[in-house]
Design goal:
By secondary structure, the protein is mostly helical. It has helices at 2-23, 45-65, 75-101, 134-142, 146-172, 180-206. Helix 2 runs antiparallel to helix 5, helix 3 packs antiparallel against helix 6 and helix 4 (134-142) packs antiparallel against helix 5.
């Protein structure tokens, strides 16, 4: 059957040319795409401690920034406080979601019930870097106008520096800060609060001398 023999010969020739072309240098054939990279999802105890601790840390900042409208803060300080309230509240939600996703205990992120001045159990609360003491909270809550502005800026710089210490501790811990969401959030906290420290320092420098009205 000449026709069948010719067909088999042509098929073999086509197959050999295809294989040779695929193996030849510079061939345009592309390898099958690998699966999309996945985020590194392992975490350690230091990650959990950072997220839970930073929720409480942010909660105190949101609490005292919320005092600005009722304590005679200047327009520029009110603007700063609004940014702090919105930005840190959003980060609290992200940290709570991360803890929930990993079946860890989730702090409620509301400082109003356990950080208000005069609460007796505040003395027993663990003190994280930069957190205002009960005495500082009372002092700030009693201030008004330019005195509030100066105290708030001074205390919030202290508070922000404490958050940076917490980020440094996280990244200095073995195996910590490697999970994608933690790394991104901690890096954002570091960058944002470093920038705000510089901004607040300039705001303090622009305030009238203590005891004088603007």
């Amino acid at each position: 059957m000449p026709h069948a023999n010719s067909l088999r010969a042509a098929t073999c020739l086509l197959l050999s040319l295809t294989i040779a072309g695929a193996a030849a240098p510079g061939a345009s054939a592309q390898a099958a795409p690998s699966s999309a990279p996945t985020s590194h999802d392992s975490y350690v105890t230091a990650d959990v401690e950072f997220m839970a601790g930073m929720i409480a840390h942010h909660a105190q900042a949101v609490l005292i920034a919320g005092w600005a409208p009722t304590h005679g803060a200047s327009p520029s300080l009110r603007t700063l406080c609004e940014r702090i309230v919105v930005g840190q509240h959003d980060e609290i939600v992200l940290m709570q979601r991360w803890l929930s996703d990993h079946n860890e205990t989730v702090p409620d992120g509301d400082a109003s019930h356990d950080m208000m001045p005069g609460m007796a159990h505040m003395d027993q609360m663990p003190q994280m870097p930069g957190m205002l003491t009960p005495e500082q909270l009372v002092q700030l809550d009693q201030a008004r106008g330019p005195a509030f502005d100066r105290l708030f800026l001074t205390f919030m710089i202290q508070h922000h520096r404490g958050a940076i210490v917490m980020v440094d501790k996280l990244f200095g811990s073995q195996g910590a800060g490697e999970e994608e969401r933690i790394y991104r959030l901690a890096s954002d906290v570091y960058a944002d609060q470093t920038t705000e420290i510089e901004r607040m320092g300039k705001m303090i420098a622009a305030l009238p001398p203590e005891g004088r009205s603007p």
